[in-house]
Amino acid sequence: MWTERRRRRAQLLLLMAAAAVVVVGSALASAQEAALRVGFYRATCPIAEDVVLAEMRLILMEDDTLAPSLLRMHYHDCFVQGCDGSIMLQSRKGKTERDALPNRSMRGYDAIERIKARLETVCPLTVSCADIIAMAARDAVYLSHGPWYDVETGRRDGNVTAAEYVENDLPPPDSNIIDVKTFFSVKSLNSKDIAVLFGCHSIGTSHCGPIRKRLYNFTGNMDQDPSLDPAYATELRKLCPPPRPGDNDGVPVGGKTKVPLDPGSNYTFDLSYYRHVLATGGLFQSDGSLLHDPVTRGYVEKVANASSPDEYYADFAAAMLKMGRTDVLVGDLGEIRPTCGIFVD
Ligand code: HEM
Ligand SMILES: *[C@@H]1O[C@H](CO)[C@@H](O)[C@H](O)[C@H]1NC(C)=O
Ligand SMILES: *[C@@H]1O[C@H](CO)[C@@H](O)[C@H](O)[C@H]1NC(C)=O
Ligand SMILES: *[C@@H]1O[C@H](CO)[C@@H](O)[C@H](O)[C@H]1NC(C)=O
Ligand SMILES: *[C@@H]1O[C@H](CO)[C@@H](O)[C@H](O)[C@H]1NC(C)=O
Ligand SMILES: CC(=O)N[C@H]1CO[C@H](CO)[C@@H](O)[C@@H]1O
């Protein structure tokens, strides 16, 4: 229902981005990258990262399902309007990123606000919401038994947001590899980055909504996606019953049931996501799409067979830093607010 229109918009955005690169390009990009750095708060708030990690431990002790949610939040923040904390902004008129369709399954806003409140007591008006989201994502991976990496900081917060940006910037779960590559290349992320970052789906769950189509009405003839392993599909159909009339429009998340993205190890950040995709075709069509391109498929096979996670973890750190540099506000741009979820209208 949404892919075609969004694909065309993404292609247009890609052309515009290419044009912009030619005009202002490298000067701006390198100025932005230069301002983000590991340990940005070393002088102004040396305990910032310790406070975030300590608070994250408490938050996840109360609800460990928030780890994947907070990792996902960094991806959504970065892809929509840059990593500028704008995912936290609220609107009385229902017009922000928080109000958009993919956000109906987004969680963790209170956790970010809680970390921000702690930081305001120790270093008032110093640490941006965008950086808190980036640090929380890193800590979420680490506390899910994944790798630690040095996170870059120095982002400032934006106050511009719109629900429609979300639809334009985030690929939908029924994307094929061409769509995925188009959306990611707008953010200067290449095929390897895609294959690496999709490993985020090693933790967390999905509602039934995003997979209903591939289970029950793949081509519109009440059929099942043939690229999905039949045994896995049977298991998913048990968890996610057929949609009732109106479900696809009225209840985008598709009920309360949640299914693991990486069955068997959904709260452990590890390499099993890649074995899962190879064996079953993955939960979303976008996960399975990794198998339909030589570069991404080669990467999936390599990681699935890896005897040690070290190389993947190094790739993951590099790709997360790259994603974390997307359209950031640095220097005099943006602002540092006392709270993150301010109302913009
Ligand atoms: C084509 C790209 C992607 C698509 C289509 C996609 C789609 C989705 C969907 C539909 C969900 C389930 C939401 C729900 O119903 O609850 C989800 C969950 C998740 N996504 Fe992605 N995603 C993509 C890329 C990424 C990337 C690059 C990351 C990390 C950097 C990421 C991290 C996560 C995590 C951790 C969850 C679990 C959230 C939770 O348990 O609350 N995703 N994704
Ligand atoms: C199946 O898909 C077709 C084509 O998109 C649509 O017209 C039909 O209403 C769908 N059926 C159900 C039960 O969702
Ligand atoms: C995986 O997710 C499902 C659904 O949320 C949950 O019931 C199950 O306990 C999780 N498994 C693990 C190993 O945490
Ligand atoms: C890696 O995995 C693929 C798919 O399971 C398999 O065909 C291939 O032989 C494996 N390669 C190595 C080097 O183990
Ligand atoms: C957004 O931030 C700019 C400064 O960065 C400020 O001038 C403007 O008033 C802010 N707008 C809103 C709606 O808060
Ligand atoms: C968590 C959150 O802010 N969810 C919002 C997503 O969008 C719907 C529809 O606009 C809002 O009602 C939710 O509050």
UniProtKB/TrEMBL annotation:
Domain Plant heme peroxidase family profile: 35-344
Subcellular localization, as worded in the UniProt entry: Secreted
Main location: secreted
Name of this chain's protein: Peroxidase
Enzyme class: oxidoreductase
Keyword Transferase: no
EC number: 1.11.1.7
Binding site for Ca(2+) 1: D77, V80, G82, D84, S86, E97
Sample GO molecular function, one term: heme binding
Catalytic activity: 2 a phenolic donor + H2O2 = 2 a phenolic radical donor + 2 H2O
Keyword tags: Calcium, Disulfide bond, Glycoprotein, Heme, Hydrogen peroxide, Iron, Metal-binding, Oxidoreductase, Peroxidase, Secreted, Signal
Cystine bridges: C45-C123, C78-C83, C129-C340, C208-C240
Function description: Removal of H(2)O(2), oxidation of toxic reductants, biosynthesis and degradation of lignin, suberization, auxin catabolism, response to environmental stresses such as wounding, pathogen attack and oxidative stress. These functions might be dependent on each isozyme/isoform in each plant tissue.
Sequence positions that bind substrate: P171
Any single GO BP term: hydrogen peroxide catabolic process
UniProt site (Transition state stabilizer): R72
Binding positions for Ca(2+) 2 per the UniProt entry: D262, D270
Region forming the signal peptide: 1-31
Textual note on the cofactor: Binds 2 calcium ions per subunit. Binds 1 heme b (iron(II)-protoporphyrin IX) group per subunit.
